[in-house]
Structure formats: structure tokens, C-alpha cells
Amino acid sequence: MNKRTSAQWWAETKSNNESLVNWLKNQYHGEAVASERIRKFILPHFEGKYGFMVERIADDEERHASWVGNLLSDRGITPEILKKEERYWKEVMTEDFNNDGNYAAAVAAHAEEMRLERISVIMNDESAPVDIKKVFTDIYKDELFHAKGFRMIAGDEYYNKSSESHARGVEALGLIV
Asked: 107 falls in which pLDDT band (50, 70, 90)?
């Protein structure tokens, strides 16, 4: 697999309309599925102390899906959950992820941090499509909160423990971070 930095990936993606639309479809899918995963794998473990924060993050992800869905609709595409192999999640959804809320929160923190790095490339690109740049600038603010929140919930021990599976996920995506 050809590894690319986020800047290389974005330059290729934005220059090809089909690639851009496919990426938006994947973003919609990712945001919609994120809210489901958060509610299934993290929220049940933290309904007391951190439940409000986790629920807010899940709600944010639904809102992000709506925003990305609007980007797709504006391009004549119906947003939908995709039937696809999720390379990153295949690597990180281990038995620990499925059974331990702290571990799942740690994986979520890593995923959000990875996403922030990509979104920052889009936000700082003066030639990015204006509507996409606006939506992802708004998403960035929430994702920053999500990354910090999930890392706080997980704690350093779980964050470090999940780093290996995160690295495998990044490798499966072909990213250089």
C-alpha cells in the first residue's frame, strides 16, 4: 500500500471530484457509525460519572453526520451508511475494545486525534472547497473536545495500552502521521 501524509492525501482527493465525493460518503458513514459505536461500546460503562460527556459526544457525531450529509445532498448524492470493510476499525475493535469502556475510550481518543490531523490540513488549505472547509472547521472544534474527553476518560494506562492497535489501524489505512 502506498503510504501518504494527510497533505498528500488531501491534494489527491480534492483534485478529483469522484475521489472527493467518495471521501464525503466515507465521512458521512464514519460520523453516523461513530455515534452508534460510542453508545454501544463506551456509554454503558460511564453512564454515571462521564455519561453526560459521552452522550454529548455521540450527539455531536450525529450532528456531524447531518452536516456531511448536507454536503453530499448539495452534490446530488443521497447520504447512506455504507457496506464496506472498515480497515482501521478492523484493527482496533479487539476483545478489549468490545468489553472495556476505558479501552474503547482510549481507541476513540486515538481515532479523534488522527482525524484532527487530517481536518487541520483541510482547514488550512486556502483552495479547499468553501463549503467543505466551513463544515470541517466546525467539526474540528467538536473533535478537539472529543479527543481530550476520551483521553481523560480512558486515562494514560489505557491510552498507552491501545497505542499498538491504533498503530496497526493507521498502517491499514496507509497513513503517515
From this structure: very high
Please report the sign of the dihedral spanned by the C-alpha atoms of residue 101, residue 84, residue 141, residue 163: positive
Task: Report the sign of the C-alpha dihedral through residues 49, 115, 25, 64, in that order.
Answer: positive
Torsion of CA 127, 132, 138, 141, to 10 degrees: -70
Question: What is the SS3 assignment for 55?
Answer: helix
Would you say 41 and 119 are in contact if contact means Cβ atoms under 8 Å apart?
Answer: no
Non-local (6+) Cβ contacts of 85 within 8 A are none
CB atoms within 10 A of CB 123: 17
pTM listed for this prediction = 0.89
Tens digit of pLDDT for each residue in 121-152?
A: 999 999 999 999 999 999 999 999 999 999 99
* 64, 139 Cβ separation under 8 angstroms: yes
